[in-house]
Amino acid sequence: MGLYTSEIQKIRPLIQKYLVGKTILDIGCNNDPITPEAITVDCNPKSKAKVIIEPDQIYKLSEYFKGNKFSVICSSHSLEHILFDMEALWDWSKLLKDDGRIILYLPDIRYYREYNPEHFHNYTLESFVKKLNYYLPKLEIVEKFMHIEPECYSFCVVLKKQAI
To answer: How far apart are CA 164 and CA 47, in angstroms?
Structure first.
């Protein structure tokens, strides 16, 4: 993998407990899937994802994967690139099994060192949690933490889909 450390590589050890023996959808994996078995999706045609979609299809993954249910959906440093972030997250939640988890790893604007014109959103952990609670109150936050250290400038939020 060279000298470059992917964002998911930074967080993988901290979320491993959610990944064991699960059916996983990895959204925005680029070239480093969360697990080798994960079904991977990306909008970047240069990605090694198993499924390459057009950016406007990110809001319709529940249609693309109709009939599939996942235990875990993981997205690292992707949601900030999606204009209608809560709409996409709502759509992704339709792909979860009851009690399934969504793991989001996102840059915190307070620690992210550079301006990225491809980011539609600049989150902090607190602003993101507030937005989640307002728009998607049926997704329970089961864990949240900052991941700030050298070369880490992000936070993680783990959501649980409520059983119906």
So the answer is: 35
